[in-house]
Amino acid sequence: MNAHYSTSSFGRDCKIQKALKKIFGFDSFRTLLQESAVKEVVKGENDVFICMPTGAGKSLCYQLPAVLAIGITIVISPLIALIQDQVDHLLVLKIKVCSLNSKLTIQERKKILIDLQSEKPQIKLLYITPEMAASVSFQPTLNSLLNRNLLSYLIIDEAHCVSQWGHDFRPDYLRLGSLRSHIPQTPCIALTATATKQVQDDIIDSLKLKQPVAMFKTSCFRSNLFYDVQFKELLTDPYGNLNDFCLKALGEKNSTGGYTGCGIVYCRTRDACEEVAFQLSFRGLKAKAYHAGLKTADRTTIQNEWMEEVVPVIVATISFGMGVDKANVRFVAHWNIAKSMAGYYQESGRAGRDGKNSSCRLYYSRNDRDQISFFIKRDMAKRQGKRGSLKTYDKASMVGFEVMVNFCEQLECRHAAIARYFGDEKPLCNKSCDCCLNPGGVNKQLDLLQSLTDRGKTCIRAAEVSQGPFGNDPELYDGGRKGYGFARYDEDCDGDDEEASEHRKKEWNQFYQQQMKLRKGTELEKKEFIPPEPFCPLKDASSQKIPKLTVKAREHCLKILEEALSSNLQKDGAASRWRRSTKPPKLALCTQYWDQGLVSPQQQMRNHLPWKKTSSLHPSCIRLNPSGLVLDIEGFVDSFRLLLNC
Ligand SMILES: Nc1ncnc2c1ncn2[C@@H]1O[C@H](COP(=O)(O)OP(=O)(O)OP(=O)(O)O)[C@@H](O)[C@H]1O
Ligand SMILES: [Mg+2]
Ligand SMILES: [Zn+2]
């Protein structure tokens, strides 16, 4: 018995059409390529490589064949969140699908395994992560399916993760090559939206796809997307510009007062997300920040509000959007330059999935460029220091970034630049980008940018990059929090993260052991608390690597700070100007700015510059009770600086 659907070619085509309508609810295939790919996969004779733009409908190319096949299809996908979206979507269609992952309860897991072991399993698609595929516990299930000839297909979604030249390289994807060798008779289907020739070759090699591989590849060109770049340093009011862009892209409001579409603004840091969301809301456009620093429940609420268009604009780190299949995204703006062209293409490609005209704008700044390039180089140097040599992946991140910089700084059709990167023919842009629509205007902007740089106004040399008062930038790439199911897309797997994660693990273990002792009633050893010196260098508090900065020490300093604040308050009755309107948490960050020499609190007040929220403060920073304590700003700053010895 073959695990695939086998009948005559005509009968097969009829079954495919029927399933397309009856099960998936589509009248026709989206494109001829989608149709041919589905038919090829259903035949089950060859390994297949599918590269189609984001939102082109790649999933159907394996989901429909999986439903028609006799056996079970295993789908490897990089993120649990992404898997969950696919599973939910298929369950709505009443397709028997499930996912084996670490978040299941024992009971749920048992139920799935019983079905998979049964003579006639009900499950048609089984979604797993690459880690699960390689795990020892999964091997008996895999072997059992294989021995009973019940394995229909091995699907590798987001296959670019296998390539060190891809923008989301995942070492675990490399292990899929041995999985593939273990099941050579099962057709393997690799799918991606972003594959240069190099990445494509890597996928075919690493996944050991059998030649001849059936290739289904379309141009990456999306004619409904209008691309443009704005130069932040040349804008007098960047937030106003962003606001206008969002409003224009969202179009007219409908009869109920809402917009018919929505948009995404991507920012590099959580802090920037908060700021941009604030700035848009301040200008009357409903926008909410979404990042890993928020509680899971808050993130879910915000995502739902955006999905339902209650909040039309979501301002997010790049963790947001994977697996979110929303058709009417009218714009994607990048408030900061993307880290690679492939990443930018995928992120901006979340616009206009319904085929309607949509806009993609990138706000470019040379400060940004220099900062990112500084951090990429620093990471490369660190890796080189550790390993003695640079790996492909290290170099790839710099190369990918340089392509992105050229994209912004060259007068070339944006679509053509993207197409060249992916090795496609130059597309017919038809004025769907700023360079084709108004080359003179873009050229003028580029000249202006250059003249600013020549006068030394914009370009921060890498070595001079401000690292903040705490000596590092924990917010870069969104901090690298693990365990949220979307770590891949907003963190760099560099040494820092490994160390930080080790450190967190140790802290957690200690905490856990203490709690267990408490539960057992065991006396904890009483450690004598030695308060830190009055001038201890607390300013390094944002670094996770300070070994001696305990919770107790922080509480101690907080107490001193609170005392200093209230004595200031009593002392300086004349500071009423700022009373009631100024809250300590905001001021806390204000001093951070001042320390960086960026702007003084007074300037900030005078210019009515917006306050930042304390969410940007690192957890180990001192947090003040936001009780609305009224205080004199200079006194506050003095006491704060005194305390922090800076
Ligand atoms: N033949 C079709 N007719 C109408 N809609 C379709 C068809 N095929 C797929 N779609 C819809 O297109 C949308 C995008 O499909 P899908 O999620 O498979 O995209 P994708 O190519 O995997 O994109 P990404 O690279 O972002 O993962 C889905 O909402 C899907 O239901
Ligand atoms: Mg997909
Ligand atoms: Zn163009």
TrEMBL record:
Q: Name one GO biological process term.
A: DNA replication
Q: Where is the chain membrane-spanning? A: 60-83
Catalytic activity of the protein: ATP + H2O = ADP + phosphate + H(+); Couples ATP hydrolysis with the unwinding of duplex DNA by translocating in the 3'-5' direction
Subcellular localization(s) per the UniProt record: Nucleus, Nucleoplasm
List, for all copies, the residue spans of the domain called Helicase C-terminal: 241-399
Q: Which UniProt keywords apply?
A: ATP-binding, Cell cycle, Cell division, DNA damage, DNA repair, DNA replication, DNA-binding, Helicase, Hydrolase, Isomerase, Membrane, Metal-binding, Nucleotide-binding, Nucleus, Phosphoprotein, Transmembrane, Transmembrane helix, Zinc
- Subcellular location, principal: nucleus
Q: Give the Gene3D superfamilies listed for this entry.
A: 6.10.250.2460, P-loop containing nucleotide triphosphate hydrolases
Instruction: Report what the protein is called.
Output: ATP-dependent DNA helicase
InterPro entries linked: DEAD/DEAH_box_helicase_dom, DNA/RNA_helicase_DEAH_CS, DNA_helicase_ATP-dep_RecQ, Helicase_ATP-bd, Helicase_C-like, P-loop_NTPase, RecQ_Zn-bd
Q: Cellular component per GO?
A: chromosome; cytoplasm; nucleoplasm
Q: Which CDD domains match?
A: SF2_C_RecQ
* Helicase ATP-binding domain boundaries: 39-213
- Family, similarity comment: Belongs to the helicase family. RecQ subfamily.
